[in-house]
Each structure stands twice: as C-alpha cells, then as structure tokens.
Amino acid sequence: MRFAIFAAALALPTVALAADPVQDVVEARQGFYKLLGANMGVLAGMAKGEIEYDAAAAQTAADNMGTLTMYNMSHLFMPGTSSADSDKTRALPAIWEDFPGVQEKGTAFVGAVQAMQAVAGAGKDQMAGALGPLGGSCKGCHDTYRAK
Question: What is the CA radius of gyration of the chain?
C-alpha cells in the first residue's frame, strides 16, 4: 500500500509537467535567463556601487554565467513557444525566423562572458570595464528578439 501511494506521489509531478509542454518550455527558458540575470545583477550592482565590490563574489557570478553558456539550450526554443503562441512569454517569433542571427548574438554573448570571467575578480574597475560589452550583448538580443 505504501509503495502504491509513493509511486502515485512520484507520478503526479510527471503528469502535471506533461499537461502543458509549451508552458513548461517557456518556464524553463525563463528560468535559464533568470539565472543569467541574477548573476548579471550582482556584477551590475557592484559596478554601480549598490553592492560593495567583492572579488570572490564577482568571480563567482562571472563563472556562473560561464557555466550557463555551456548549457545546450536548443530544447528551450521549441517551435510554438513564442509570444505569438503564448501570452506568458516575450520571445518574439523573429527568433525562429532568424536562427543564424540568434546564434551570432549568442556567440557575442559567450565572448563577452568569457571576457568578464577573465577580469571579474581582478578589481572593480576591470570588472566594470567588461560589464559594458556584456550588457551590450544582452541588449542586442533583447532589442531584436524580445518584446518590450
């Protein structure tokens, strides 16, 4: 009896996840970007003086972003998960119409993250200097592929 209850409890989340695969993908994609944003927020806060610069924390945030850039996100861009398909996302259909452009902007972002990783822990000025290109790479994608 306990086994049956335990098995049913394990199956419920699976059934719930399968209920709306489009929303699941949208939420997973948003979660990925929230992780990037949380780490970017640490770096930006330090650069603005809102958070005291801490070399170890800055390096950790940059390294976290570097780790995230190694994640294969292709499944997070399932067709049918744009803002034309769901009011729960700001991902414009242009993403699916221009994958080469998305990849180009993604490559620029990875390069900017790597540049940040190289200097984040070396001092506030070096970290702040790398923040402009990193933020610019984010903005370049947002301006083209994300609804306001």
Answer: 19
